[in-house]
Amino acid sequence: MRRPGAWALGLVAAIAAATPAAAHLTPNSEIGLDMGHSLVAAEVVVPLAEIAYSRGGSGGGQGLTAAGLARDLVAHMSVRSPDGRPWRVDLRDAAIVHDAGAPDFKAHLTLRPPPGASPRRFDLSYSMVIDRAPNHFVLVLERTDFDGGRLSTRPRMIGGLQGAKRTLRVDPGPGAAWRGFAAAVGLGMRHIAEGHDHMLFLLSLLLPAPLIAVAGRWGGYGGLRHTARRLVGVVSAFTVGHSITLLGGAFLGWQLRTQPVEVAIAVSILVSSAHAWRPLFAGREPWVAGGFGLVHGLAFATLIGRFGLEPLQKAQSILGFNVGIELVQLAVVAAVMPALVLLAQTRTYPALRTGGAAFTAVAATAWIAERVGGAENPVGRLIDEGLNYAPWLVAALMAAAVAATVAERRRRAAAS
To answer: Which of 45, 199, 241, 307 is in Cβ range 3.0-4.6 Å of 317 for a Cys bridge?
Structure first.
């Protein structure tokens, strides 16, 4: 028998907060809210077995249909502003799904406030299942809130419903568009800074940037103008590429399964590391960076596509996310390229470039094996852990560049 009590709600709340919303592993119901500028989107998930139990059955919900449950949901859910005015509740879709093995009833609704009412303060009333099974509980979660500056893949619990407690005041406080934009910038910065694969792809294309290709091999230093032209081309093309697929993912629903996208990203690193070793597409780096940027953008789109319910918010999310990515990319270029330019004018650069190409090739191969096989391997884990110390590696690179430059000048002075 199930025990009533607040401790049960708190325990399950803690479990739900630690569990991604995609996997509904507990017997409670969940209402996930996405706060928009002028509306609220709701996702309701109810275990089918709990619906059957509340109706006096003991099976897994045989005979229940999505259409019938959708009608039941609409009849058991209402939203009102604090002054008592009702909101418009529109059912977008409903289905019986098997996300985590046990079947759930899942529905998506759009909640629209009356004219003049704030979409950020309302009373949510809900009684499906809990009107017949008082021990059942409903977790109400805030998933995203653009104007509140909350862009996260992990929901935050804001309350619970159980038994006679069937109404919850939702009030996340005042919001502003700049908060969502700032949060998107921060998200883009964290994602690219923590995304070792994206950074290694960019760095492997930067390794040969100061050099000129001669007879199928990398030659000597091409000068500052040549280097700057390569840098601008590669960084700009990569930005354009991932921006296109970000826009397509957010507004046109472009999506691929995560695994092939992640494998393709690792392949892009392997190709760029081979190019750093021997020129495969010298002079065409921007085209390659743009093409692989399309692939990298698909990975970004799965993250950013859900943020912002309305077109303006989606556009602000994408713009802010891109700004964050560019800030980190420019910081990496500013930190790494002075050392590479100095080293490119010394005899030590061929060895460093070959070593860097070998390192990125090993990392890419380890990540391909992980992403194809679906399991970590020691090499990939060691590389990820090592890349956490990237600032120290950049400092060591700069120190090596200064030492190599001093040694090169002494050698030339002695030779003359």
So the answer is: 307
Residues 6+ apart with CB under 8 A from 40: 33, 34, 79, 110, 111, 119, 122, 309
Q: Using CA atoms, how far apart are residues 337 and 21, in angstroms rounded to an integer?
A: 42
Q: What is the pLDDT of residue 146?
A: 86
In this structure, which amino acid lies at residue 111? L
Helix (H) or strand (E) holding 343: helix 311-344
CB atoms within 10 A of CB 380: 22
pLDDT of residue 154: 81
User: What is the signed CA dihedral for 407, 413, 414, 416, rounded to 10 degrees?
Assistant: 150
Using CA atoms, how far apart are residues 213 and 217, in angstroms rounded to an integer? 6
The Cα 241–Cα 198 span in angstroms is 13
pLDDT at 47: 92
Share in percent of the chain as helix, strand, coil (round to 5): 55, 20, 25
Do 180 and 313 touch, CB atoms closer than 8 A? yes
The Cα 258–Cα 254 span in angstroms is 12
Structural contact between residues 289 and 241, judged by C-beta atoms closer than 8 angstroms: yes
The CB-side HSE value for 200 (13 A sphere, CA atoms) comes to: 29
Query: Which residues, including other chains, have CB under 8 Å from residue 268's CB and lie 6 or more apart?
Result: 201, 292, 295, 296
Is 11:28 a contact under the CB 8 Å cutoff? no
**172/73 Cα distance (integer angstroms):** 25
Residue type, 29: S
- The whole model's pTM is what? 0.75
